[in-house]
Amino acid sequence: MEVRDPSPDWSRFAARFHDIEANVERVVRGKRREIRLALVALIGEGHLLIEDVPGVGKTMLAKAIARSIDCSFRRIQFTPDLLPTDITGVNVFNQEQGDFEFKPGAIFANIVLGDEINRASPKTQSALLECMEERQVTIDAETHALGTPFMVIATQNPIEHEGTYPLPEAQLDRFMVRLSLGYPSPEVEAEILASHGATQPLEELDPVADARTVAQMILQARQVHVAPAIRRYIVDLVEATRSHPDVYLGASPRASIMLVRAARAWAAASERDYVTPDDVKALAPAVLVHRIIASADASMTGRSPAGIVEELLSDVPVPLEESP
Question: How far apart are CA 1 and CA 35, in angstroms?
Fold first, then answer.
């Protein structure tokens, strides 16, 4: 049974969040917004998809988050020969006991890095569906719960398509946030050369929080107030993606839930116990864009899901800010 804190300390929450954020930024320079979005996915009980070209720090970001938190971490290198049981685990017959024994797979960790997730077969990719949504694994009719916190951080290269299997919509919909890191500025890249050329900053990174602390932050973020007007604004935004003439497939009801959870975590990190329309607008592109498929005609004219979401953020009426 969940214990609700009658008087959460939001300044302490924000301080803990910023400690993790600053620690990760010691390794991933000049990407504060992207780091914050990644941590929002963690605190909002979601998963993160990092889609970008090679060499910009996708794997480094995932490892830096794991090293900043004293918790279990596993890396899965997705390849065409990876099997579903490599991820979820398998029942093995124990000759000494005369019974089957469950051997956990790589998914049994607090933070799981799925590197180049689109290189595995669709059958292997689908092994993550139950894990990501229900936070459990079912093997031979026996269910095994995953721990808290639990987050899958997946990476993929959007340019190279040979030998890859694009993630289906059902899989994409399970990621709370999709982001791209992009290239660093020349000034930041010069700093990276100075720091990474002689040492490995990732190896020098010490934890600034533990799994228990993050689990407490997750419970605390659930208590952030979302006013009825804000909830209606989120529903209107998501509904607008379904009725837009340039959209073939709009965002699902899961998108609304994810946007609420992300907004709560974002507000708590800003030392607030309530969500504002600006929180929703700041997070909508990262939460909604990968859930939308533009129509064929719209794609031919250069329309993109990102452009459609930006248009909707301008067109959908914003409620007046309301605090509890």
Answer: 31
